[in-house]
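User: What would this chain look like folded?
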Amino acid sequence: MKRHATAIWKGSIKDGNGSLSSQSGILENTAYSFNSRFEDGKGTNPEELIAAAHAGCFAMQLSAFLTEEEFVPESLETKGEVTFKDGNITQSHLTLKAKIDKIDQGKFDELVHKAKTNCPISKLLDTEISVEAELI
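Assistant: Here's the prediction, encoded as structure tokens.
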């Protein structure tokens, strides 16, 4: 399976702007710019998209591991936060709030760690990855 997306950039780094479109159409000419990346301008940015991808991938991987162990998660709310410093992504931090019936803390912690290590986006990222997980 292959997925694709397209980025179009026009102009200089500070004064230019771009758009992102994805194969699925969920992103369609979505704006991004210097201001949306490095300041608080309107639009998205690569780091925000990486944070979303990591949070989504981790939640799905954890759901798969829970399912293998016969636990059905009611909800896995995962926030991804990417730190961009000096031109590098230096950390990806995931914060999870999970509702899962009949799981003990030890098994939960084990599967969270396994998902952190094995989700495809974690494997792709060459940075520090941390997870803060809470059963609610």
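The first strand starts at residue 5 and ends at 10. If you want, I can go into more detail on any region.
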